[in-house]
C-alpha cells in the first residue's frame, strides 16, 4: 500500500512512524512534512489546503490511501476532492468536519443526539458581551467560535481577563462562544468512525496550559500520556455508547456520516462524562503517545475506515505499559515564538530505545543544521512498563536536546503517577 500523509507536525510524524511499522505499507510520502518526517518518508512541498494540488500529488505518487492530519484541510473539503478523484482518504468530508469547524453545529448535533455538554451562547455583538459574561462564570470559558488550534480558549476565574479575551476576538471579527465551566479531569478519546461503526483507541490526557501545575495560558498542547490509570474501563465504554455512537448516528441521519477520526474531548465530572469539544482528526500531542502503544498495523485500520470496511477488521491491539509525550516549545511560545535557532541533540532517525524524538516545527538549513521553525518544535515520546518509567524515558531523552530559550513542562503525567486525579 502506498500512503500519502498530509500535514507537518509531530502528530503527522507519529502517523508516518506507525505506518512504517505496518508491513503492508510499501511506500510513504508526506506533504509538506518537516525535517524529521523527511527521514522516514519522501516529502513534497504541497500546501495541505490546496485541494487540487493534494489530488495531483496523490495521483502522481499513485497513493492507495491519503491520511489528512490537520483540521483546516478537512474543514475546507480536501477529503471530498480526493474522494471525487476516486482516491481513498482517511478524514471526514467538509460537511462532517463541521463537528470541529463550527461549534454551533457541534452543539446542535449533541443536543439532537442527547449528549451532555456545556451550556453555551454565541456573542457576535460587543454591546452584548458584558450581559452575556454576567450569565456565566466564575469560572469563565471564552472561546473563538472557529478554528484556533487550541489557542483561542481562555479559561479563567478573572472576569476582566475573560472580558479582555472576548473583546479582542470580537475586534478581530470572530464570534465568541461562552460556555459553562465543566469540572473534572479531562479525557481525550479518539475513535475510528466509519458511519455508525465506532472503534475506540486508548484514552489519553492532554496538558493544555504552558506551565507546570496547569499554570499560564492555553497552548496547542504541551504533553500527554496514555493509558489513564485513574479512568475506569466502564467510563470508556460509557463514552463510546452514550457519546460517540449517538453523535456518529446523528451525523449519518443528517446525511453527513463521519469517516475518519472522531475525537471526543470530555470532562469527567460528578454527573459523568460531558463533552468539552469534538475534533474531526487525531489530537496533538495525544496521538504521539497513543500510537507508541499500538501493536496493530495502522495502515490496515486507516484504509478500512477510509473504504467503509472498518467493521470487518480486528479491533486494535495495544502493547502493555504506558507512553508519555513531552513537547519542547520555542522561547515565548504560546506567544510569538522565537524561530530560526539551531537545535542539537535531536539525533538521527527517530527512535532510541524507549524514547522517540518526533519533529513538529523544524526545518533543515542548507548547511544541514536542524533549525526551529514553529512554536512547538519537537516532541519526545517515552515508553515504559508504567507511567513512571515512561516519564523517565521521555525526560532523560529531552534533557539531551539543546535549543536556546526553549522550555517544556516537567509534570506530564505526574498527577496520575501520584494518584492525585479522582473521578
Ligand atoms: N490535544 C488538543 C487538540 O488536538 O486539539
UniProtKB/TrEMBL annotation:
Pathway: Purine metabolism; IMP biosynthesis via de novo pathway; N(1)-(5-phospho-D-ribosyl)glycinamide from 5-phospho-alpha-D-ribose 1-diphosphate: step 2/2. The keyword Ligase applies. Its EC number is 6.3.4.13. SMART domains: GARS_A, GARS_C. It comes from the Bacteria. GO terms for molecular function: phosphoribosylamine-glycine ligase activity. It is an enzyme of class 6 (ligase). It holds the Pfam family GARS_A. It catalyses: 5-phospho-beta-D-ribosylamine + glycine + ATP = N(1)-(5-phospho-beta-D-ribosyl)glycinamide + ADP + phosphate + H(+). The keyword Thylakoid does not apply. Its cofactor is Mg(2+); Mn(2+). InterPro entries: ATP-grasp (IPR011761), ATP_grasp_subdomain_1 (IPR013815), PreATP-grasp_dom_sf (IPR016185), PRibGlycinamid_synth_ATP-grasp (IPR020561), PRibGlycinamide_synth (IPR000115), PRibGlycinamide_synth_C-dom (IPR020560), PRibGlycinamide_synth_C_sf (IPR037123), PRibGlycinamide_synth_CS (IPR020559). Residues 107-307 form the ATP-grasp domain. Keywords: ATP-binding, Ligase, Nucleotide-binding, Purine biosynthesis. PANTHER family: PHOSPHORIBOSYLAMINE--GLYCINE LIGASE, PHOSPHORIBOSYLAMINE--GLYCINE LIGASE, CHLOROPLASTIC. Belongs to the GARS family. This is Phosphoribosylamine--glycine ligase. It comes from Nocardia niwae.
Amino acid at each position: 500500500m502506498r500512503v500519502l500523509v498530509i500535514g507537518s507536525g509531530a502528530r503527522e510524524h507519529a502517523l508516518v512512524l506507525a505506518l512504517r511499522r505496518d508491513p503492508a505499507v510499501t511506500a510513504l510520502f508526506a506533504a509538506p512534512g518537516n525535517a524529521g518526517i523527511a527521514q522516514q518518508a519522501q516529502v513534497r512541498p504541497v500546501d495541505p489546503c490546496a485541494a487540487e494540488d493534494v489530488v495531483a500529488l496523490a495521483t502522481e505518487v499513485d497513493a492507495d490511501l491519503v491520511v489528512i492530519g490537520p483540521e483546516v484541510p478537512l474543514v475546507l473539503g480536501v477529503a471530498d476532492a480526493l474522494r471525487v478523484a476516486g482516491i481513498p482518504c482517511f478524514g471526514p468530508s467538509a460537511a462532517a468536519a463541521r463537528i470541529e469547524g463550527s461549534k454551533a453545529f457541534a452543539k446542535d448535533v449533541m443536543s439532537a443526539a442527547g449528549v451532555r455538554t456545556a451550556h453555551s451562547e454565541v456573542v457576535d455583538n460587543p454591546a452584548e458581551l458584558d450581559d452575556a459574561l454576567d450569565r456565566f462564570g466564575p469560572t469563565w470559558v471564552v472561546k473563538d467560535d472557529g478554528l484556533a488550534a487550541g489557542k483561542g480558549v481562555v479559561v479563567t476565574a478573572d472576569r476582566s481577563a475573560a472580558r479582555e479575551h472576548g473583546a479582542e476576538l470580537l475586534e478581530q471579527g470572530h464570534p465568541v462562544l461562552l460556555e459553562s465551566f465543566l469540572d473534572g479531569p479531562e479525557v481525550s478519546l479518539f475513535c475510528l468512525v466509519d458511519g455508525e461503526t465506532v472503534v475506540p483507541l486508548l484514552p489519553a490526557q492532554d496538558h493544555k496550559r504552558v506551565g507546570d501545575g496547569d499554570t499560564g495560558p492555553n497552548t496547542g498542547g504541551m504533553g500527554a500520556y496514555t493509558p489513564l490509570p485513574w479512568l475506569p474501563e466502564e467510563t470508556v465504554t460509557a463514552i463510546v455508547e452514550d457519546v460517540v455512537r449517538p453523535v456518529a448516528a446523528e451525523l449519518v441521519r443528517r446525511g453527513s456520516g463521519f469517516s475518519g477520526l472522531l475525537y471526543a474531548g470530555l470532562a469527567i465530572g460528578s454527573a459523568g462524562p460531558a463533552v468539552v469539544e469534538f475534533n474531526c482528526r487525531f489530537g496533538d500531542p495525544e496521538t504521539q503517545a497513543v500510537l507508541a502503544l499500538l501493536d496493530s498495523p495502522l495502515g490496515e485500520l486507516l484504509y478500512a475506515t477510509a473504504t467503509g470496511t472498518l467493521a470487518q477488521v480486528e479491533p486494535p491491539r495495544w502493547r502493555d505499559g504506558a507512553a508519555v509525550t513531552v513537547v519542547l516549545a520555542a522561547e515565548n511560545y504560546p506567544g510569538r515564538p522565537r524561530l530560526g535557532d539551531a537545535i542539537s541533540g535531536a539525533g538521527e532517525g527517530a527512535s532510541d530505545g524507549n524514547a522517540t524524538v518526533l519533529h513538529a516545527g523544524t526545518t533543515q538549513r542548507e548547511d544541514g543544521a536542524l533549525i526551529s521553525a514553529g512554536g512547538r518544535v519537537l516532541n519526545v515520546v517515552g515508553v515504559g512498563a508504567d507511567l513512571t518509567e515512561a516519564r523517565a524515558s521521555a525526560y532523560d531523552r529531552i534533557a539531551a536536546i539543546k535549543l536556546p530559550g526553549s522550555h517544556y513542562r516537567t509534570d506530564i503525567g505526574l498527577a496520575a503517577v501520584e494518584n492525585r486525579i479522582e473521578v
